[in-house]
């Protein structure tokens, strides 16, 4: 079967769109892609610091060291724990709020704004404010120790901060997806006698799968790169050490830039694999309108 021919008008439109995307892509390539590719060779060396020009090739020694290193294993476990709580909480609350605030009324518009405002707050600023809430409000009010000071509670406590900040973003994505669903589908379901939950399960969920994929994959990426929260509120706690902090400490603190770069490569590979797996699973749930 021959592919459909593209008219000159369509070619001009696509070409114009690509030209508009080119500056953003060039900036992304210069800031993200190029440094990442340049850093791969350094992960196979004993490079000491970012200002050092002397290093020797050590092969896969850094990767083997990381796989066997207990602190790196713990940092990765903490990162996965944080990401799992964060992604689940932000998406569940975001979707729930979207279902409640889907209809455009003056009071729902105000509520959407209030819920979305935390997303505009800087990560570090939000973490510091929540550190005050945990320490000076929740702790004396309930006569408990701040969860940021308890090893078994610090990861969930940081995840709550991240959920508070990003659930508004998830809500807006889900609202956009909900408003793209034709009302005719719901009207037909009502005629057939479907209740609210049956309409949500049979119509809403399948048709917002693209939004679910977008939110989940993006938040997984943010979660695996978690650095600001532990740096701001739990810098000296081993139980709050994340993979991104491990990379930072080795590159800038312990003068083991080659080892830190290898850790960054491992995080990136895990992120790519998880993103592909999540997208593949969610795509099976998607339906054609």
Structural description of this entry:
The protein has 289 residues and is an all-alpha fold. It has two domains: 1-42, no CATH class; 58-283, MetI-like (MetI-like fold, Orthogonal Bundle), CATH 1.10.3720.10. It is built from twelve helices and no strands. Helix 1 packs antiparallel against helix 12 and helix 9 (209-224) runs antiparallel to helix 12 (257-283). The longest helix is centred in the N-terminal third of the chain and has 35 residues, at 8-42. The model has no long low-confidence stretch (mean pLDDT 87). It comes from [Clostridium] citroniae WAL-19142. The chain crosses the membrane at residues 20-40, 80-101, 113-132, 144-164, 203-224, 262-282.
């Amino acid at each position: 079967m021959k592919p459909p021919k593209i008219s000159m008008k369509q070619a001009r439109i696509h070409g114009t769109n690509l030209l508009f995307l080119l500056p953003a892509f060039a900036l992304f390539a210069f800031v993200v892609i190029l440094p990442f590719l340049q850093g791969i060779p350094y992960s196979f060396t004993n490079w000491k610091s970012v200002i050092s020009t002397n290093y020797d090739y050590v092969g896969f020694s850094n990767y083997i060291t990381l796989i066997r290193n207990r602190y790196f294993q713990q940092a990765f476990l903490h990162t996965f724990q944080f990401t799992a709580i964060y992604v689940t909480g932000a998406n569940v609350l975001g979707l729930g709020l979207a279902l409640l605030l889907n209809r455009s009324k003056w009071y729902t518009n105000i509520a959407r704004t209030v819920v979305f405002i935390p997303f505009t707050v800087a990560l570090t600023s939000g973490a510091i404010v929540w550190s005050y809430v945990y320490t000076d409000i929740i702790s004396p009010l309930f006569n408990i120790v701040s969860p940021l000071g308890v090893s078994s509670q610090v990861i969930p406590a940081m995840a709550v901060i991240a959920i508070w900040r990003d659930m508004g973003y998830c809500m807006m994505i889900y609202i956009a997806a909900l408003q793209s669903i034709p009302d005719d589908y719901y009207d037909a379901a009502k005629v057939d006698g479907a209740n609210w939950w049956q309409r949500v399960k049979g119509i809403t969920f399948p048709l917002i799968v693209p939004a679910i994929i977008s939110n989940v994959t993006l938040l997984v990426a943010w979660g695996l790169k978690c650095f600001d929260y532990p740096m701001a509120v739990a810098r000296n706690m081993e139980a709050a050490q994340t993979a991104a902090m491990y990379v930072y400490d080795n590159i800038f603190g312990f003068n083991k830039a080659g080892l830190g770069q290898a850790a960054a490569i491992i995080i990136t590979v895990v992120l790519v694999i998880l993103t592909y797996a999540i997208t593949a699973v969610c795509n099976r749930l998607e339906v054609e309108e």
